[in-house]
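2 proteins. here.
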Amino acid sequence: MNCPKVDKLSQYADNLLTQQEHSQILTHINTCDTCTSIVQLFKEEQQFLKENLQSPTLPDDFASLVLEQLEPYKQKDVRRKKQIWNRIFLLAASIVLALGLTATLSPSFAQFIEGMFSTKQVDEGLKMASDEGLSERVNLEVSDQDLTFKVEDIIVDSSRVALSLQVINEDGVAERPNINESNKGNRISVNGYNGEYTYSMGYRMDRGLDYNSFQVFISDEPGLEKVTINFHLVELNGKQGNWELEIPVELTDSSDKTKNVILNNATQNINGVAINLKEIQYAPTSNTLLYETSYESSEQVKVEGNFQSLNEQFGFDVTEFATFGTSIKYHIENEEKKVILKFSPFTQEEPMDDKLIISSARGKGKFGHAAWKEAFVPDKFDSKLTFVLDGVYKVVPTDFSIKFNPNKIKEKPVSFKYMENQVTIKKAELQSAANTSDPTFFEIEMEVNKESGAAELGIWVLRDDTGKSFRIDNETTTKGKESNMRSIYFKTNGLDEIPEEMSLHLLTATSYNELEEKWRVPLYE
């Protein structure tokens, strides 16, 4: 059934419907999150009014006392009119009191009025910015097929642009937005303009209960003046139609809300890795740490030489398939030394911190040299933060290889240990592709048990008994019940039949060096 009208949901919450109507709506809300939320909202308000409007009661002569203060003329015989005004005044007073108390004390009703950014559907940074009055209601919308696609609120600072998206049906009820990005007809684009040229930017869309959060993270492009977000949707919440909306966002006035702290001379060389902290940006919706990592000069020469040898041996550029080469693990403390953020580029080692909003890195030319950017949720009570380096990661070339007979793997799995990783090759066989027109592929399954401090195994190459090399084109990793156990599935094309002997060659691994004495850098002036 279609969603009931709001007044029916209100009557359902108040138990005012017939038994048949009550049963019909009960069946519906069991499968509809939106209507469930609306009913819950009505029930919470009903309970709130019950608890807060029953006491204290007003004195019987309250209205008369107030009206006497307002009466500018001598009283005449207007008893009937006075009785009417008494009733109107008491009704108005009740309504004002109810709305005032509800909006002030009831979180659900306040959220309903204030929009998405006042709710728990967004991170704390956006919620704090909304509480400080930085959310602007724009109410840009377009309608088709009895559905309205709406941008309700927007928050802008120097770190990101955030929109709240709504879908409202013909009954005026907000539905959970369902924007199918796999539909090729649905196009969403974000373009930045820096005064000279326009360039494409990325975005992130998070699904909420009755909203979607759409976020654009501001890049390091200098002089960015404007961001334009375009929605061209041909499918919305399962309906075919046409919804086009353009949202221009000016950024020139957002920089005055941001404080930049330049971290002069915050550099360190550890285990062949150079770390250079650049600055931290304190914006209303997020704090953003900017830093660079690279190989120390002598380490750079050594690594490049080893990679060149691997390139010649296997016939392709290994560094094209490697990670950024260098990275760090750190945490950030407040003035009381309470940890407010933990970061590691390897989520297997350190689960993703819910304070982290986004992490990005871009190459700076040489292999191993990367510029990093981590944005995390600010804390309104933390004015003095400290960066604490826990350890460093670096990609190192390896020359490890293992031979095996693919035809005997199932009966006799091959096991080995390397860099504190206990590895077992469990499967090696040709597989047929789902699409019969595609060629078959060769799949290898390895089970990896990582010990404490184990390196991350990187790029693998497969060789047959003639010495021909096959790059691993597809890799999938699944974690087991134990946090240190995982299965890795390799897929490669080009093998038509299985040889008697093959070899796996590990070309790279990422080692980690934990610091006994932590490097601490104040992130304030």
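next one coming up
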Amino acid sequence: MKRVFSAALAAAICAAPVAAEDFKWAGTTDPQTMDPHAVNSAPVLGFLNNVYEGLVRRGKDMSIEPALATSWEPIGEGEGWRFYLRDGVTFHDGSTFDAEDVLFSYERASSEVSDTRSWFAPVSEVKMVDAQTIEIYTTAPNPIFPDSIANWMIMDKGWAEANSAARPDKENGNYATLNANGTGAFKVTAREPGLRTELAPHDGWWDEATHNITKAEFTPIQNAATAVAALLSGEVDMINPVPIQDAARLQGQAGVQVIQGIEARVIMLGFAQDAETLKYGADAGKPNPFQDARVREAVAKAVNVDAILKTIMRGNAEPASQLVSPAMRGYSEAHSTRPTFDVDGARALLAEAGYADGFEFGLKCPNNRYLNDEAVCQAVTSMLAKVGITAQLDAMPVQNYWPELRADNFDMYLLGWSPGTFDAEHPIRFLASTPNAEKKLGSWNFGGYSNARIDALLPMIQSEIDDGKRQAMLDESAQILQEETAYVPMYVQPLVWGTRDNISLTQRPDNFFILRWVNVQ
């Protein structure tokens, strides 16, 4: 199988654009909305990175580079950051971009009803200096702040207000749910949720186009066999992902290629730690065993990750010990060992916690969000049964899954996390901080894990500029999360894309598919 990692792939396919072409691609998950502030999820943000832009963006190697801001600099002694905006930028409808749009987009993206509000937890104030300068003040020195806003997308103030979309509406939707007006390389020309989304190049884009696409069309295809058949027939030019079990067969087919790398996403199990009682299974209503760290550790010991990687992932994934992969900044080398598979040890821990006879609970899982997600949950269910605990598995499409988690309708759940900043601070802020809506913390901490020391460490990690001191705090955080089995990290998800052999593109480890790097030969 062709194994190509992002940096190497980016270097290998920088071919000059050729004659303009149509391009069609398919994925398992349709973006839930066209509103960049309504849903904080990779399918939405990845898709909309083609349509909207931020002050900064990530390049082919994931490094931060200028976008709607041409440059930035710290204000004073760590008071915040000053961004100098790009002149001459227009939105897709022809209106002019300036600092008013940035201020509006901050107020919108950080509002109570926005799913991205937690991104702005460190922000104390945003000031518009003039039409081309914006200042963002932080509550403490924040050296990684520019990295943290790579997916914060800027909307046109006038367009949003004129269309009654001044704030996002995730639940009921509004004009921005189905329509878009960004500054990006592509504009949305047709949107049929669940069926297709059509895009065309933005002729007034400020940057130089290196793609040769005339029209692009995305189709969600949940059935893996249907997606593979569409690629083989030429009905689509790319599918993401390629089913692991089909990768070797596809690689041997004429006219197609398989491109593989390692994603930044860690797949883990989470627990309803703040629930007093179980919600599902025969023991629903009884005291919640997952409040006991010994029970959570027993789960970690009972799950045979090596077997999952060998049989379900076909050797294409890597085991994980932390909430971030070794490729991320701040990964703790001191805590790189994950729990040993130990059935007897798991049973002993359950007995010590008072559950020698086991218990029954509910495991929620998506069936179209991560590679082989339902199969992994089925394997976990079987493994847990061998230590005496019975999981009632409920697998569902991702559009139903997130509302279930946000409504606390689970005892245990599957989650994948890719840090938007490529830094270990990110999952601490979103997954391990005590949920606090006012401070915009713990917004994806569905199980309500809480540790006072983690909460105290986070602001210090965010403001520390000495790498050694900062890493020591990240090491301490990793140790606490491991000792308490806050989550059970299992593996780093692989990237497996399939394309026709006349397609050149860039595969980034965040699994964002960027159309402006595509060429059809």
